[in-house]
Amino acid sequence: MRATEDLPAGGGGPAEGARRADDGTPAGEALPAGAGVPTGEGAPGAGQDTVAEVVRQWRAVYPGLDTGPMEIIGRINRCAALLQQAEDAPLGRAGLTRPEFDLLGALRRTGRELTPGELARETFSSGAAVTKRLKQLGARGLVERRGDPRDRRVARVRLTGAGQEAVDGVMPAQLAHESAVLSGLGGAARGELAPLLAELLGRLEGRPGTPRT
Amino acid sequence: MRATEDLPAGGGGPAEGARRADDGTPAGEALPAGAGVPTGEGAPGAGQDTVAEVVRQWRAVYPGLDTGPMEIIGRINRCAALLQQAEDAPLGRAGLTRPEFDLLGALRRTGRELTPGELARETFSSGAAVTKRLKQLGARGLVERRGDPRDRRVARVRLTGAGQEAVDGVMPAQLAHESAVLSGLGGAARGELAPLLAELLGRLEGRPGTPRT
DNA sequence: ACCAGGTCTTTTACTCGTAAAAGATGCTCG
DNA sequence: CGAGCATCTTTTACGAGTAAAAGACCTGGT
């Protein structure tokens, strides 16, 4: 997760490697956030996820440890990974990657010009990454840049007409696609997940949250 | 996304790019999964997450669209991104990245020798990535490989004593760290999240789920 | 005015992961 | 038996992201 997103996918902002892109996570560290248990496995039934089996294996190895956190964190990580693969079909059709869409989306939702630095913060990515993406999106005619007259260090980036059309053309399909991915989830579950995740995310964001370079 | 994990983090398996993050998410596509709203924002209070603000912006732009999916998917992506940054402190201290830990963890939890292909499936990463990690972990003396006598195409990988010590030394700290990250989340919320995420993950994994190369 | 220090963006060097091709075996079937 | 195809792993080529340094530009104090 990377941590990239801009919202049709539900929310936040820019990409990440969730990223992760992974980041996914860059050269961070590597705790056990949920290795799957892709191998055969006995249980046939529904409702079995790979994380459950991995947790079972770990408990057998370390009977004394509390594996509770794995069941939440591992699942979030795994869900994010699968969602990012499944989620991006409409974007791919439009010839956009998620980080690119996140950037365009930030401009569209805020409705104003943004500087590269602001875009980096909105999309939770590094300034260097934004520079590269702007170069590509500019070459494709989706964004324009002009210098700020007041402060010549600063650039101001805005969507072109084609850029806005691209976002407006993809967004409905993206939201519909995400809706489809979540279908099959009981209505009750859907209603409960959002607030619970909001609480968790609020806590996580409370801490400074490792600002980007 | 990346999307790498092996469990202490809660779950699933290997990385992803998340990323991989990914992003994160590798070169997938880019729906709006939750661009943050890092900018000022008016609301001061607690319980405000960045995704909420992004959703608000999108709704203002597209009043007719159902932004519900964003509130779940965007938050999952953003949580995964933040968790992967916050989560890996103990691993870093041990000199391991998460993908490396995922690999070692797969060997530890299964308790047997695995082939590179099996490791790739367990850790949800590509075979090429496993090859590279095995080279590094082998050079550090954490894993050993020997040829399978029956089938010389196949390699068999196992933890060395040092490798097992590394996992056993880090795992408790990692779980404790993850527990700390989740503290602050009400006990009720903690109890509800795991089964809800399990249901979602089960659905997501039901589909083939883009097998790795 | 000048200069030390800070801000904003881009560039550079590097790492990591992937996809696709290449190698090396094993297996089946005529 | 051996040709052709499948399987397992590694290699190659490349794209993307990051951190850190470099550039360019403001600003406040003296």
Observed structural traits:
homodimer, 213 residues, mainly alpha, Arc Repressor Mutant, subunit A, two-stranded antiparallel sheet, 8 helices, 4 strands, 7% strand, elongated, DNA-binding
Topology summary:
Two copies of one chain form a homodimer.
Chain A: E1 11-12, E2 19-21, H1 50-61, H2 68-87, H3 89-93, H4 98-110, H5 116-123, H6 127-139, E3 143-147, E4 155-159, H7 161-182, H8 187-206
Antiparallel strand pairs in A: 3-4
Helix pairs in contact in A: 4-5, 5-6
Chain B binds a DNA duplex (30 and 30 nucleotides) through α6.
Task: Output the CATH topology of chain A.
Answer: Arc Repressor Mutant, subunit A
Oligomeric composition of the shown chains: homodimer
Number of domain modules of chain A: 1
**SS strand fraction of chain A:** 5-15%
User: In total, how many beta strands of chain A?
Assistant: 4
Evaluate the radius of gyration of chain A. Answer: 20 Å
CATH superfamily of chain A: Winged helix-like DNA-binding domain superfamily/Winged helix DNA-binding domain
Taking the sheet with the most strands of chain A, its summary is: 2 strands, antiparallel
Distance between the termini of chain A: 17 Å
The pair of chains with the biggest contact is: A-B, 133 and 133 residues
What top-tier CATH class of chain A fits best? Mainly Alpha
SS field, number of helical segments of chain A? 8
Q: Overall 3D geometry of chain A?
A: elongated
Structural class of chain A: mainly alpha
Question: SSE order of chain A, as H and E?
Answer: EEHHHHHHEEHH
What is the strand arrangement across the widest sheet of chain A?
Answer: 3-4
The stretches of 5 or more residues of chain A where confidence is low (pLDDT under 50) are 1-5, 10-46
Look at the structure and give the mean pLDDT of chain A: 79
